[in-house]
């Protein structure tokens, strides 16, 4: 599965009419593409460096994205858009915790940058620790950790950590304040901790969702090489 996520910042996000028109334009472009799953929605209050609009597209093949890219580029470069960040990646290690009929209400994505100075061992431990969270945090209904293969927009990102939640309380409380989150995983992000390998300015973005987007993926070698 080839995935594309774009985080858009608008010139005037408080202008409801302009935002609604941008969402309509983007949804039209997404629906006209060969994407097998799409999500275009305003971000919800509480995002951090997470933009005003979130666009998420899933394609069976990279070539499907290439055939539709120009139309998506045009839709995401409208005069109402101040800036955008874009990541492309191959859906890697993830699961749905057996909830295949579950209907999530919140889709969350975290775009992050592992520093070049991180050793392969540090990177391995970070990825393993991140993927261990769903075993302990029951509020995570689905999840996927992938390595970025292409990035645009002036920010460097190496990983995408996606989850689905039943509501915002599950994200803000059950997930963020769980001991495994702040006791084990946060150390990779904390500049005051010697284990830190994640650069500052992560993109923590989330929006309303009405259908599952994250599929279970089994892979012996789940990450593609960056290109």
From TrEMBL:
Output this protein's name. Dabb family protein
Q: State the PROSITE patterns in the record.
A: S_R_A_B_BARREL
Q: Which Pfam families does this UniProt record tie to the protein?
A: Dabb
Q: Which domain of life is it from?
A: Bacteria
- Span of domain Stress-response A/B barrel: 106-201
């Amino acid at each position: 599965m080839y995935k594309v996520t774009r985080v858009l910042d608008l010139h005037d996000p408080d202008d409801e009419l302009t935002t609604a028109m941008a969402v309509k334009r983007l949804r039209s472009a997404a629906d006209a593409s060969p994407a097998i799953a799409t999500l275009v929605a305003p971000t919800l209050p509480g995002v951090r460096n997470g933009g005003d609009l979130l666009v998420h597209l899933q394609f069976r093949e990279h070539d499907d994205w290439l055939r539709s890219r120009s139309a998506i580029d045009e839709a995401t470069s409208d005069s109402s858009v101040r800036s955008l960040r874009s990541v492309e990646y191959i859906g890697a290690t993830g699961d749905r915790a057996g909830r295949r009929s579950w209907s999530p209400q919140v889709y969350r994505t975290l775009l992050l940058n592992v520093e070049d100075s991180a050793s392969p061992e540090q990177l391995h431990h970070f990825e393993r620790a991140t993927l261990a969270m769903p075993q302990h945090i029951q509020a995570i209904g689905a999840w996927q950790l992938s390595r970025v293969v292409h990035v645009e927009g002036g920010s460097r990102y190496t990983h995408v950590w996606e989850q689905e939640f039943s509501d915002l309380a599950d994200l803000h409380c059950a997930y963020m304040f769980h001991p495994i989150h702040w006791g084990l995983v946060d150390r990779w992000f904390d500049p005051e901790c010697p284990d830190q390998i994640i650069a500052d300015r992560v993109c923590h973005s989330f929006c309303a969702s009405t259908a599952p987007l994250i599929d279970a993926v089994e892979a012996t070698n789940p990450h593609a090489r960056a290109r």
